[in-house]
Amino acid sequence: MSKDIIFKTEEYVFSYRVAGLLVQNGKVLLQRPLGDTGYAIPGGHVALGETNEETLIREFKEEINVDIKVDKLRWVGEIFFPWGDKPCHQICLFYDVSLTDKTNIPLEGVFFGTEQLEGESFKLEFSWVGTKAIKNIELYPIEAKEYLYEELDEVKHFVYKQD
User: Fold this and answer.
1) Which intervals hold domain Nudix hydrolase (predicted)?
2) DSSP run (H or E) holding 59
3) What is the pLDDT of residue 118?
4) Which residues on adjacent β-strands are paired with residue 48?
């Protein structure tokens, strides 16, 4: 069993996560816990001894049963947000990813998957969201709205602090 890189102290949580930007037909795949209003880019916590690429391949397979190819690194995010009753400092690396087989998931609309985190299982809603709709949804980190459709020549670094 793998051990996710999440460290908790009495005062803080540290999290190391990777996320995959999957774009098909002008729409990006986003996820959110069932019943939540805010979306995130699919991915998960890196396990000790696992590469970023291995993590993304594993997470997409576990959560929605698809095989992906991991492409270039696009963004490095230093993200600060509440994790329950503690502040969290998360390092998240965002990669372009592509499907290697398009038969296992719908390429339009909404479908569901499952996430495993700290020994618990959660239902996730996955949605294909078009470029114009991105502006009107709650998406974290907020920088994703700005950078998602930019063609960047180099890796973009950002810091996001949620109040």
Assistant:
1) 13-152
2) helix 52-64
3) 65
4) none
